[in-house]
Design goal:
5'-3' DNA helicase activity, binds adenosine-5'-triphosphate, P-loop_NTPase, alpha/beta, 3'-5' DNA helicase activity, HerA_central, Rossmann fold, 511 residues, 3 domains, twelve-stranded mixed β-sheet, HerA_barrel_dom
């Protein structure tokens, strides 16, 4: 092992093979979550500081302020500083194995060196995705193992803690490795990644928008690709689904079928609406026709083909903004099922990474077997979660509601990046879905800062608390600076109420 060794304490008290305590040497400064090691023959037993205690018999909690003050001004100190360390494993040449060593009192404890930590957190260049650095040691970079994504990943955090930022970092790293990425983006949070000076992002990211998109960031983005459906390509069931008619509504479904049979002209949505209004004299599907009129902008001259959004070294952001959930489900189903088919049939040979933002809306727990698109979407996501790795299609599930997502899907994600979460029921859902995360790691979740994450599972050799690195691409959905926006609003109001402006306006009205 290279690097200078710093002895920072000596083990004391009763120790187990997985936990030990040590007393800190007076000159050492120690922080929670730091890594330390003790020697066991040829190997080093690496551990993480879980707790810090400073004890004093003299200055006890029965003393009043004045008495304590007297002691401290006479410089009398009897405090003992103790660290509790959880053993991670025995480390040799960057490989961690289970530790079964006995830890005796009096053994020297060393601070883990940068070289030692780097050897653990790095993989060879082909496999390494640089996602951040140690939360308390910014000079130690943290990498994720790309092969760890074979068993899927979930990114979980409460709102504003840094989920989209983290997912964006991962997309950047995957693109650098030549990955094919599809992003289901309900709020157009990722579209700005294309808006980059760097060729890798500018040339390889494509944004697809449905004609109903909210058009967020259009001024910055310029022209993007359209994701449309050609009405003529739809069958009866698909039209019924898009109109939001449940298959159990037999009469309404029959009307849709009858109308479809009667289409003779352009067979487009306008003809469908016109014929429906003629046939549906009892107005059984009037409300659904009204809805179809509202959403008919989604139909275009062609159905976007999978080959447009699935290509080697291409990231396709599918902007689903502006769609209600059932329509978003329809588009999500189209995209996911076609990508899955392309992998299963072998027509697309490269690995595909499927990022699902707001995944709780696309794969909620299905207590009773549903029907239609939402059930088909759920089944496909579940299939990918269970079997995707066999075919080379991998999920990255992003959610702020781990309790509101199907637990089978969540538990198939073998790696987790978990940012700040304070809600106990969300914490419970994470604990139940992951065997990688311990109660003690869980207890650190509420104290994480924005952008700090606990990373566990196959993508890392050992659980780690990391700060996710800065983004290279532009972020959407940044936090609004309320002070700045209110200042702008006040200036607008001042302009509006300026007597000269009022006179000008009156003059204009008189003209
Ligand atoms: N690692 C980081 N370094 C610096 N800034 C960060 C980091 N992570 C997040 N942020 C900032 O924190 C804010 C919230 O991040 P982000 O939008 O990713 O959160 P979120 O969890 O996706 O929130 P929401 O659920 O509302 O979409 C953003 O302004 C983002 O730039």
């Amino acid at each position: 092992m290279q690097g200078q060794e710093y002895e920072i304490g000596l083990t004391v008290g009763d120790n187990r093979s997985d936990i030990f305590t040590f007393v800190i040497s007076p000159e050492s400064q120690i922080r929670k979550w730091e890594y330390v090691y003790i020697k066991a023959g040829e190997t080093n037993l690496l551990g993480r500081i879980e707790d810090l205690l400073s004890k004093s018999d003299l200055l006890n909690d029965r003393m009043d302020y004045e008495s304590v003050k007297k002691y401290t001004t006479s410089n009398i100190k009897d405090n003992v500083d103790i660290c509790v360390v959880k053993i991670i494993g025995a480390v040799k040449d960057g490989i961690i194995s289970r530790s079964r060593y006995l830890i005796r009192p009096g053994q020297p404890v060393f601070r883990a060196t940068k070289e030692m930590l780097e050897s653990i957190f790095k993989f060879d260049d082909q496999r390494s995705l640089e996602i951040g650095y140690l939360a308390d040691q910014p000079d130690v970079k943290i990498f994720a193992n790309i092969n760890g994504l074979r068993r899927h990943l979930s990114i979980i955090a409460q709102t504003g803690a840094g989920k989209s930022h983290t997912a964006g970092v991962l997309m950047e790293e995957l693109l650098k490795k030549g990955a094919s990425i599809i992003v289901l983006d309900p709020h157009a949070d990722y579209v700005l990644m294309k808006n980059s000076d760097k060729a890798i992002y500018r040339d390889n990211i494509k944004v697809f928008r449905t004609p109903m998109s909210t058009g967020r960031y259009t001024a910055k983005l310029g022209k993007v690709d359209e994701f449309t459906i050609k009405f003529q390509d739809l069958n009866d069931e698909e039209v019924r689904e898009i109109m939001g008619i449940h298959e159990n509504f037999v009469n309404q479904s029959k009307i849709v079928k009858d109308v479809m049979e009667k289409l003779t002209g352009r067979k487009d949505v306008d003809e469908f609406i016109q014929k429906s209004e003629q046939i549906d004299t009892e107005k059984r599907i009037a409300a659904r026709i009204k809805y179809l009129k509202k959403i008919k902008a989604i139909f275009g001259d062609k159905t976007t083909d999978v080959s447009e959004y699935l290509a080697p070294s291409r990231m396709s952001v599918i902007d689903l903004s502006g769609l209600d959930q059932s329509l978003a489900n329809y588009f999500a189903y189209k995209v996911i099922s076609q990508a899955y088919d392309a992998k299963v049939t072998g027509s697309f040979e490269y690995p595909v990474f499927l990022f699902i933002e707001e995944a709780h809306n696309f794969a909620p727990p299905m207590k009773v077997k549903g029907s239609g698109v939402s059930q088909m979407l759920y089944d496909t996501i579940k299939k990918i979660a269970a079997e995707g790795r066999k075919f080379g299609i991998f999920l990255v599930i992003i959610t702020q509601r781990p309790g509101k997502i199907d637990q089978d899907v969540l538990s198939q994600c073998n790696s987790q990046i978990i940012l700040r979460i304070t809600n106990p029921s969300d914490q419970k859902a994470i604990l139940e879905s992951s065997e990688n995360i311990s109660e003690s790691l869980m207890s650190d979740l509420p104290s994480l800062d924005v952008g700090e994450a606990i990373i566990v599972g196959e993508i890392v050799k050992m659980p780690v608390i990391a700060k996710i690195r800065q983004r290279e691409t532009e972020e959407g959905g940044l936090d609004v600076d309320i002070v700045e926006m209110l200042q702008k609003a006040r200036m607008e109001a001042e302009k509006r109420n300026d007597p000269r402006a009022i006179v000008e306006n009156v003059k204009k009205l008189m003209e």
